[in-house]
């Protein structure tokens, strides 16, 4: 009977030139994506068994549909089996896990190492999405920003590394997929090992150990120039508000004092069919307790993780 009523509604709408009521529109598909550097495959030398188990249980508890993993190092099959997910091991470093079928795999070894970059195409109940996992070089060390210098001197320090070159190579191989992103959306996440210009603003220059400077960090500016949206910052636009809104994914020590650095792990996206509706960042020092979705977990990594929920048209 419901099918007959909907059919008659469609005929009536067509004849009258009116649109179908919103409640009868196609339901949007939701997709939760998690990006996490799990620190040497979750096999901490200090906590060899509990670390791996904790990483698996946190991933399970997250109920993420897609996981972008960095520092996989031998645990790919274990994670996939524990979750019951499809997966691709792109390199010893990068792996992707999905609740949904993986229909294509993308690697570009002639242009960018699979240690740094690779991806998959997913079939999400008939909707296509391309997902890419990323690791940019860890030097210069994001925890050692010379904040006593000027912005230009900080940028000169940053540009002594290879992150910008690596990202340029990534953009070169992504070019045909970026051109199709309005029909097949792109999600690009991972460990970028550097900060964001959206975090080091005039409003935050005297906060979070920024040393009184605002910095137009080049990697995030390059992502923005390629029309990628920073999903966490899009939904948390005021990092100056408090540490939760900043969303740091890295803890570090200075002379025995625990300090929080900024986000160096991101989930970017682009495409007209994709919208970020929720984004969360979780972080804890290694070996401490994480309160996560109503449960307490041993925290096994030196990185925090980011989760963003999208709707797909």
Key attributes of the depicted protein:
single chain, alpha+beta, 8 helices, disordered N terminus, 6-stranded mixed β-sheet, 313 residues
Word description of this protein:
By secondary structure, the chain is an alpha+beta fold. It contains 8 helices and 16 strands. It has helices spanning about 1-15, 50-60, 75-85, 150-160, 165-180, 220-225, 230-235, 245; strands at about 30-35, 65-70, 85-90, 95-100, 100-105, 115-125, 125-135, 185-190, 230, 250-255, 255-260, 265-270, 275-280, 290, 295-300, 305-310. The chain has a 6-stranded mixed sheet with strand order 3-4-2-1-16-13. It has a 6-stranded mixed sheet with strand order 5-6-7-8-12-9. The chain has a two-stranded antiparallel ribbon with strand order 10-11. The two termini are about 25 Å apart. The relative contact order is 0.16. Mean pLDDT is about 90; it is low at about 1-25.
Short description:
This protein has helices at 2-16, 50-62, 76-83, 151-158, 163-179, 218-225, 231-235, 243-246, and strands at residues 29-37, 66-70, 86-89, 95-98, 102-106, 117-124, 127-135, 186-191, 229-230, 251-254, 257-260, 265-270, 274-282, 289-292, 295-298, 305-312. It is α+β, with helices and mostly antiparallel strands and 313 residues long.
């Amino acid at each position: 009977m419901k099918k007959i009523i909907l059919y008659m509604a469609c005929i009536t709408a067509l004849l009258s030139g009116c649109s179908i009521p919103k409640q009868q529109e196609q339901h949007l598909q939701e997709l939760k994506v998690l990006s996490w550097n799990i620190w040497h495959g979750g096999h901490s030398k200090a906590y060899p068994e509990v670390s791996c188990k904790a990483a698996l249980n946190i991933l399970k508890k997250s109920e993420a549909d897609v996981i972008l993993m960095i520092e996989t190092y031998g645990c790919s099959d274990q994670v996939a089996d524990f979750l019951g997910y499809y997966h691709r091991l792109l390199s010893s470093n990068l792996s992707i896990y999905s609740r949904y079928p993986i229909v294509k795999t993308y690697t570009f070894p002639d242009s960018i190492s699979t240690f740094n970059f690779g991806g998959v195409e997913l079939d999400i109940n008939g909707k296509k999405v391309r997902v890419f996992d990323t690791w940019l070089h860890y030097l210069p060390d994001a925890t050692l920003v010379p904040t006593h210098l000027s912005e230009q001197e900080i940028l000169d320090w940053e540009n002594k590394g290879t992150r910008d070159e690596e990202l340029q190579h990534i953009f070169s191989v992504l070019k045909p997929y970026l051109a199709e992103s309005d029909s097949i959306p792109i999600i690009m996440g991972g460990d970028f090992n550097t900060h964001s210009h959206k975090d080091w603003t005039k409003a935050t220059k005297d906060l979070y150990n920024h040393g009184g400077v605002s910095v137009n960090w080049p990697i995030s500016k390059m992502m923005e120039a390629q029309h990628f949206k920073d999903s966490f910052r899009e939904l948390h636009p005021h990092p100056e508000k408090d540490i939760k809104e900043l969303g740091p994914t890295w803890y570090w020590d200075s002379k025995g004092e625990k300090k929080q650095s900024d986000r160096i792990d991101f989930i970017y996206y682009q495409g007209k069919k994709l919208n970020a509706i929720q984004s969360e960042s979780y972080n804890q020092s290694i070996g401490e307790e994480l309160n996560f979705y109503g449960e307490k977990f041993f925290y096994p990594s030196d990185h925090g993780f980011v989760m963003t929920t999208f709707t797909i048209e």
